[in-house]
């Protein structure tokens, strides 16, 4: 004979289990805000470099600063904005790395020195 276990359809007399909720839930609007701001940030810093080498270094520096802001936001602020920042920064670094690789491949000289 199996012990009786309630299905949950009818109250069993026990108090319900506690529900834990995220204190700062991630929303699509927050991700979009972080992504938009970071895109503008990377474009502005990328335009500061007058040469290809300057573009690559400014993009690297701007991405590092953006990731520091993202880490602070993960701990103390809005995790959705931090996610948008991290995603766009990774994309911006990927574009810069691909451009450096193509320049290196075509010229045969390392472009960042």
TrEMBL record:
Domain of life assignment: Bacteria
Keywords recorded for this protein, A-Z: Membrane, Transmembrane, Transmembrane helix
Span list, region Disordered: 1-21
TM regions (residue ranges): 26-49, 55-74, 81-105
Designated name of the protein: Uncharacterized protein
Source taxonomy: Bacteria, Bacillati, Actinomycetota, Actinomycetes, Micromonosporales
């Amino acid at each position: 004979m199996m012990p009786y276990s309630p299905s949950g359809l009818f109250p069993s007399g026990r108090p319900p289990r506690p529900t834990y909720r995220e204190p700062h839930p991630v929303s699509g609007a927050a991700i979009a805000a972080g992504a938009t701001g970071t895109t503008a940030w990377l474009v502005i810093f990328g335009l500061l470099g007058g040469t290809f080498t300057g573009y690559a270094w400014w993009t690297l520096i701007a991405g590092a600063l953006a990731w520091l802001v993202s880490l602070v936001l993960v701990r103390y602020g809005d995790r959705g904005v931090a996610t948008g920042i991290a995603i766009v920064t990774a994309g911006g670094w990927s574009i810069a790395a691909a451009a450096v690789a193509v320049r290196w491949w075509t010229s045969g000289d390392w472009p960042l020195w």
